[in-house]
Hints:
By secondary structure, the chain is of the alpha/beta class. It has helices at residues 15-27, 38-48, 81-90, 103-115, 148-165, 187-198, 225-250, 254-273, 276-279, 300-316, 318-337, and strands at residues 2-6, 31-36, 55-59, 96-99, 124-125, 127-129, 135-138, 172-176, 203-208, 220-222, 281-285, 291-294. It has eleven helices and twelve strands. Helix 7 (225-250) runs antiparallel to helix 8.
Amino acid sequence: MKIIIDVMSGDNAPEELLRGAVDAAESFSADIAVCGDAGIIDAVARECELDLSRLEICHAPQVISMEDSPLCVMREKNDSSMALGLKMLSEGKGDAFVSAGNTGALVAGATLIVRKIKGIRRAAIGTVLPFTPPFLLLDAGANPEISPEDAVQFALMGSVYAEKMLGRKDPRVGLLNNGAEPTKGGEKRVEAYRLLSENGKINFVGNIEAREVPFTPCDVLVTDGFGGNIVLKLCEGLGSYMFSRLKETMMQDFITKASALVMKPKLKKLKTEFSASEYGGAPLLGISKPVIKAHGSSDARAVKNAVRQAMTVVSSGVIPELVRHTAKKQEEQNTEEQ
Length: 338
């Protein structure tokens, strides 16, 4: 198995991404190819004393910034580290691709270079939220707006992912909304509710309000990328805030400090569970081959875990299962129309 990593994109590129790539090469039974400017990669490796002997270096002179337009991956920056990695994946020179770069460019590039699964309208970022038990949120940022039909496809893709990756039988699907009633939300959400309710292949449990999210009310939470990204970032920020306040409380006096000492191992484990670095990245569901979107602020540990996530997606067979599931659905629709 070979995992391709874009080491020039993201807030901490290229040093942290190279460190993560080296750690992954040492820890996992996979070949690692890194895409980026070979001269810069070599210079950083010498400065940081990184052994790149286990990595395949693939030269790409350009870098896509967070400010670049999504289509730059196909146009003025088609020699970028992101574009090269996607081309390698498309040509079968790797089994999965990982990037911490510009989300819009990654979605556009994956759609146009690697290509969507036939029959899928839009790709969606599927992020696992680390509650008890964890559940899948999609879309987490790829599509600011979606149609009711997109919501149905997201629900179907998410159900396959939850079954294959999270071990959920007959996964429960919820629709993020500002109220539980079927009439809540705008026209698109009301129509999405109706379509989800009428689809016999979806175990739809209704609208889910944001306050219910931490209590795992479903196995798959469907929404547009705008709302999904807000939920994701709020969970991340709120988690950091609560741990910060908890630390302040534990340091107030002798009794609380003693309690903190006793609780330290459990609190450390809990903090790790809510760390974005532990999950590493999220797959672009709907793309015909595994593309993993890592957090823009990924450090070495996050990159290493994104590689682990990519390997898990490849070995699980969830992408071929999505291909089969979509093809079967299309056949059923064609039969009904005849």
